[in-house]
């Protein structure tokens, strides 16, 4: 179908504020103009309006005209666009003769419009337009300023508000611990005379190292919220010397330390258990891989290759000899500076903690001894404060610090991060959240918030048993279906 091209691209024409008039919309002008191919879109900093208008049936008396002015309206904010007029014969020729075309509307002669008119207009975009509407002002005009009352017709509701996925997260209540068993792990460096297993409390640094062990035990025994249960001590020797002798030293020194602690507290024999590692190769490997070793040793890669070489498995004397012979300078440094630190006693003090019931009590323990809480207790506290608040987020963040690999704790921390829009933190936590239905749903939510709707739908399709999954799919469908469509047409005629 042929169209009569009417291209109206102009700068803003500001009119008065039309809030009151726009709110009292009157009946449509009759006979009407049909609206076809209506389109409204944002392009950079411009708002573009395109449509075709069917005015073929509109008739006017020879001295009268209908002036139509498209407008963008939102409350008291209004922008008027370039008007056009459908005029009777005399009124039309008055427009033709006018020299002042900038202030007059583009006019068409009623009854002579055989083809649809094309209307194009652009205006600078302002944020208030995002949820405004397109209206047409229609006013009949005549000679001698005999004008009719303007009527206002809502044509389209604008929707340029960004479509973001709103998360509806699903938390999982952690299982309560029947018995809250806890452990304090620490390390002491007890000095023994060369090749001896006897302990001397006043020898070298033993006073402070023994004091550390005893202070740990005392802190548990003195706390009325804790019940002391047992201690485990594991002794380590360094790799120099024969493996057989190092076995004797590690085992004997560990037992000596256990006996010293047992006798001091009058513990029953089964309260303290022991184990030993004849040579701490794992500790040596950790050091050789460190940044300090890269700066200090001349050939850390060569030493590491010997340490990890499977050919030396079960042949620790040969392994140590290889390092000594191939890298004598580095070996002397290790012997003097690193090996003493490989002679240590690791100990674990085991105890149970009473349960905490009220949010107030839990909040107090969070400040004083958070390690004595359980995931379920932290969850109780989180449910007692405002979702999304500082206290709410702190509870879940504390959870992942205390139990960094717990799937439920990570899931709930991920959900809290999703609620506050922190997708980076959510991704980190959800990577450790396991593969439960709730965890899969949380990952789908993360994908949707990052606008990866295909990934989100792929996950949601597999977990339809979760009611929230179905609601999420509907939300995604609404967002994706409206993509590129920025208005809802309210009428097809003015």
Explain this structure to me?
By secondary structure, this protein is an alpha+beta fold. The protein is 38% helix and 22% strand. It has helices at 19-23, 89-97, 206-221, 243-265, 281-288, 291-296, 300-308, 316-326, 328-338, 359-368, 375-384, 390-402, 407-419, 423-430, 437-449, 453-460, 467-481; strands at 4-7, 34-43, 46-54, 65-74, 77-80, 84-87, 106-109, 117-124, 133-141, 151-158, 180-188, 226-236, 272-277, 345-353, 487-489. The strands form 3 sheets. Strands 4, 5, 6, 7, 9, 10 and 15 form a 7-stranded mixed β-sheet that branches. The longest helix has 23 residues, at 243-265. The radius of gyration is 41 Å and the shape is elongated.
Q: What is the average of the pLDDT values?
A: 89
The counted number of beta strands is 15
Distinct helical segment count: 17
Tell me the overall shape.
Answer: elongated
Q: Summed up, what is this model?
A:
It is built from 17 helices and 15 strands.
What tags apply to this protein structure?
22% strand, 4-stranded mixed β-sheet, elongated, disordered N terminus, 7-stranded mixed β-sheet, 494 residues, alpha+beta
Layout of strands and helices, then pairs:
Blueprint: E1 4-7, H1 19-23, E2 34-43, E3 46-54, E4 65-74, E5 77-80, E6 84-87, H2 89-97, E7 106-109, E8 117-124, E9 133-141, E10 151-158, E11 180-188, H3 206-221, E12 226-236, H4 243-265, E13 272-277, H5 281-288, H6 291-296, H7 300-308, H8 316-326, H9 328-338, E14 345-353, H10 359-368, H11 375-384, H12 390-402, H13 407-419, H14 423-430, H15 437-449, H16 453-460, H17 467-481, E15 487-489
């Amino acid at each position: 179908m042929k169209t009569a091209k009417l291209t109206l691209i102009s700068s803003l024409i500001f009119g008065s504020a039309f809030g009151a008039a726009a709110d009292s919309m009157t009946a449509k002008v009759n006979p009407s103009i049909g609206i076809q191919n209506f389109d409204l879109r944002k392009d950079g900093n411009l708002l573009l309006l395109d449509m075709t208008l069917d005015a073929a049936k509109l008739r006017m008396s020879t001295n009268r005209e209908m002036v139509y002015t498209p407008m963008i309206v939102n409350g008291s904010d209004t922008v008027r666009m370039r008007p056009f007029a459908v005029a009777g014969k005399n009124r039309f020729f008055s427009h033709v003769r006018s020299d002042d075309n900038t202030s007059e509307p583009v006019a068409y002669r009623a009854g002579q419009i055989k083809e649809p008119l094309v209307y194009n207009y652009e205006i600078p975009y302002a944020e208030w337009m995002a949820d405004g509407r397109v209206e047409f002002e229609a006013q009949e005009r005549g000679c001698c300023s005999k004008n009719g009352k303007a009527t206002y017709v809502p044509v389209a509701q604008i929707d340029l508000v960004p479509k973001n996925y709103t998360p509806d997260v699903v938390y999982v209540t952690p299982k309560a611990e029947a018995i809250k068993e806890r452990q304090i792990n620490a390390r002491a460096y007890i000095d023994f005379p060369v090749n001896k297993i006897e302990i001397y409390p006043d020898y070298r640094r033993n006073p402070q190292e023994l004091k550390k062990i005893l202070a740990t035990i005392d802190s548990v025994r003195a706390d009325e919220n804790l019940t002391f249960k047992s201690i485990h001590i594991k002794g380590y020797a360094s790799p120099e010397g024969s493996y057989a002798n190092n076995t004797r030293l590690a085992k004997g020194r560990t037992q000596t330390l256990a006996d010293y602690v047992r006798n001091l507290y009058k513990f029953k024999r089964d309260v303290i258990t022991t184990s030993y590692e004849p040579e701490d190769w794992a500790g040596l490997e950790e050091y050789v891989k460190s940044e300090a070793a890269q700066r200090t040793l001349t050939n850390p890669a060569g030493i590491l290759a010997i340490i990890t070489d499977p050919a030396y498995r079960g042949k620790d004397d040969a392994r140590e000899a290889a390092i000594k012979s191939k890298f004598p300078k580095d070996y002397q440094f290790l012997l003097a500076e690193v090996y003493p630190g490989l002679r240590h006693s690791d100990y674990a003090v085991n105890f149970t903690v009473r349960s905490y019931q009220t949010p107030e009590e839990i909040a107090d323990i969070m400040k004083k001894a958070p390690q004595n809480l359980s995931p379920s207790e932290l969850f109780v506290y989180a449910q007692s404060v405002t979702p999304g608040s500082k206290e709410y987020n702190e509870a879940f963040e504390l959870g992942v610090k205390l139990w960094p690999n717990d799937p439920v704790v990570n899931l709930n921390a991920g959900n809290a991060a999703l609620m506050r829009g922190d997708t980076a933190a959510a991704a980190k936590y959800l990577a450790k959240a396991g593969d439960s239905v709730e965890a899969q749903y949380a990952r789908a939510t993360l994908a949707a918030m990052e606008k990866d709707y295909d990934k989100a739908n792929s996950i949601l399709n597999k977990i339809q048993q979760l009611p929230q999954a179905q609601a999420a799919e509907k939300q995604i469908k609404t967002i994706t279906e409206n993509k590129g469509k920025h208005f809802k047409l309210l009428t097809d005629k003015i």
